[in-house]
Amino acid sequence: MIALARHIEGRPVLLVALLCLTQTCAMAGFATYWSALPVLQPAWELTNTQAGWISGILFGGFCLAVPFLVSVTDHRDARGIVLIGCGLTALGLVGMAVAADGFWSAMAWRAVAGAGLAGTYMPGLKILTDRLAPGHLPRAVAFYTSSFSVGSGTSFALSGMILGMVDWQWTFALVALGPVIGGLAIWFLVRPRQPDQGAQPRRHAFDLRPVLRAPQTMAYVLAYAGHTAELFAMRSWLVPFLVVSMGFSGMTGEIDAAFVAMAVSFIAVASSITGAELAIRFGRVRLISVVMVISALTACATGFSITLPFWLVVSLCLVYAATIQADSSAITAGAIAMAPEGHRGATMAVHSVIGFSGALFGPMMAGAVLDVSGGQTSVLAWGLTYSLIGSFGLIGLACLLLLGRHARG
Predict the structure, then answer these.
(1) 195: which DSSP letter?
(2) What are the C-alpha distances in Å from 141 to residues 18, 19, 134, 398?
(3) Close Cβ partners of 22 (under 8 Å, ≥ 6 residues apart)
(4) Which of 3, 28, 38, 97 has its CA 20 to 30 A from that of 259?
């Protein structure tokens, strides 16, 4: 195994592929709650706002854990942090299987799983940045961030398939095997390596001030907050949206909706990689600006389309997924490129805490709009909800342009 790990580290393509694979395994249960929501919401008597809170609290746990689990990677090997993250993710999924029976218990175990995500996603990227030459980083970041969508899509497909055979408790228990497999792959196939401290004076591991004081870095961080609010609000409510659309079209079957959600996630992979290449050619800010405006317009069209033929609704969802994800790797690559020297891990921590705070509140705000504007059977309610979701990206774009202009000034 040591020889194999050394062989992988010496070949950037193999290392990127391994980290993408382990992240996909770690995310096996990422979308299980969303896939099971049409079953869990009536069983637990949840309002749309409560269902949105349970969805978003995953990223609440993520944001609470990120400052500790990611910023320390400037001083410690990120490999060990990823192993901790895989363990927390598995624990949160098993807790959902055996102990969740309503709003508060589900909130607690989803938060644990979110802390696990904090220990796998950005620390996994830090494994790459510590081991790859700078010339390999832009495309490596694009492929790795795209593995998030691969993991999400795989989770939708796997959860939907398992839900078709067993109950939701066994579904959560079985997908918990994914992060265990991912952790074992990291343990055996990634060699330990201490990070480069840089030439800057040594600071405390949790000192985030150099990042917070860097306006060009924070411009991308705030843009990411708008992006994640839009992305995860859309994904949180995608399966219920498709199930309601099926009803309007005279179709049935929540599991089919989960597989459509899988396709929506997978199309985002190609979109993210393509967006990264276009950003290299035309510039990050230009690419992000165009994508976020188109994404907002597509969101409005998608929400109000719910009564149209189902194939057309699915087509709009796929287009929306492609636009919403096209700027993801460009934003993350921009934050890393603008990181203060010696503070790349701290930059990833701030990027994650502030960025994923959008994912914490976005699903809940969408659920609240759905509640107050007529509920899931209302066409107007879905139209307003998706219009709100699309506006999150525009807020992120405004932050990017205004703060970036201030930094240049």
Answers:
(1) P
(2) 13, 11, 11, 24
(3) 82, 120, 124, 182, 183, 185, 186
(4) 97
CATH topology of domain 2-190+214-408: Growth Hormone; Chain: A; (1.20.1250)
Q: Is the overall model pTM greater than 0.85, yes or no?
A: no
SS3 labels along 56-123: HHHHHHHHHHHHHHCHHHHCCCHHHHHHHHHHHHHHHHHHHHHHCCCHHHHHHHHHHHHHHHHHHHHH
Q: Residue 316 carries which side chain, given as an amino acid letter?
A: L
Cα–chain center distance at 321 = 13
Q: Let me know: does 323 contact 271? Beta carbons within 8 Å.
A: yes
Torsion 293-402-273-261 (CA) sign: negative
pLDDT tens digits, 163-212: 989 999 999 999 999 999 999 999 999 988 877 655 444 554 556 777 88
Residue type, 49: T
Nearest 5 degrees, angle CA 27-CA 46-CA 309? 75
Question: pLDDT digit string (tens) for 108-132?
Answer: 999 999 999 999 998 998 898 888 8
Parse the chain into domains and list their residue ranges: 2-190+214-408
Q: Two tokens at 284?
A: 């990050």
What SS3 state is found at 338?
A: coil
Q: In the chain, pLDDT over 90 holds for what percent of residues? A: 50
DSSP string, 256-305: HHHHHHHHHHHHHHHHHHHHHHHHHHH-HHHHHHHHHHHHHHHHHHHHTT
The rounded distance, in Å, linking the Cα atoms of 8 and 3 is: 9
Confidence (pLDDT) at 203: 52
How crowded is residue 255: how many other Cβ atoms within 10 Å of its Cβ? 15
